[in-house]
Amino acid sequence: MKKEWFGGRLTLLFAMLCAFALVAPVLAQSDSSSISGTVTDSSGAVLPSAKITIHNNATGADRSLTSNQGGDFILSHRDDASLDKLQTCRDPEKAVEIAKYDDAGNYRSLKTAPNLRHGWRLELATVEKLRRALDYFYPGRLAVFEAWKSGYLATMPLRETLDRQSGMYRVAAKISDPQINDLVADFCRSDGGCLRTILWKRDRNGEIASTKLPGEKFDLAKDQMIASSPPGSASPATAAVTFTVPLLCQEACNLLVAECRRIVKGEGN
């Protein structure tokens, strides 16, 4: 059975699972997931161990997926994809708890940071449950991805985002270009920062967000988890990756705005 990549709702979610499995540490979107899908015949009966191939028309790349015996969608941390002894749950609401803390028990304020915890497995019986779980892991990223796929995604330059701030955050607009260059390079880096692919510019003139970030950070075709790894390194989970669906960043998040304010105010970390 062959599915065209981006061909519809089901294939979109399979593609997002690729991202979840490939981009995160997801989406990231370390944090990622292995993929299996519910496949049925014309009568609606589950087809266990069915092979599905997702094809990317733009690159010609294929990714093959196989459903489990129950035909469920399966999510797990990308590093845990080959492990059997994982804490298993069938409730998509469990994703809320999983995404909340990292392996050390620290709160994850940024859900697209490369620090999703290990040791879990979600078996989801329907596309609706799959979508709900993905939205818990990466809030809003499915909607952003769908908007981009449809050609309706609008981006916002950082300067415009800062200029529209009010109250205590109004001062953030006073940050200088050199300060932005340094801050974005550190705060938004894929290695320890955020796994989103940056689409926004620094200003209306189209200046790049930071000249200190590698080109891969702005490349939709690049897996940010692999891009963040040291040269020559590859885990079993990432070595076989052929393509990913990116976690898209269409405008600066409120956490980056807060960091801009901190820089302007001269406050410490």
Structure description:
The protein is of the alpha/beta class. The chain has two domains: 2-138, Gyrase A, domain 2 (2-Layer Sandwich), CATH 3.30.1360; 158-265, no CATH class. The protein contains nine helices and eight strands. It has helices at 9-22, 94-100, 127-137, 141-150, 158-163, 177-187, 224-227, 236-239, 254-265; strands at residues 2-4, 51-55, 62-66, 73-76, 87-89, 120-124, 197-198, 248-249. Strand 2 and strand 3 (62-66) form a beta hairpin. The termini are far apart.
Layout of secondary structure:
Blueprint (H helix, E strand, L loop, with lengths): L1 E3 L4 H14 L28 E5 L6 E5 L6 E4 L10 E3 L4 H7 L19 E5 L2 H11 L3 H10 L7 H6 L13 H11 L9 E2 L25 H4 L8 H4 L8 E2 L4 H12 L4
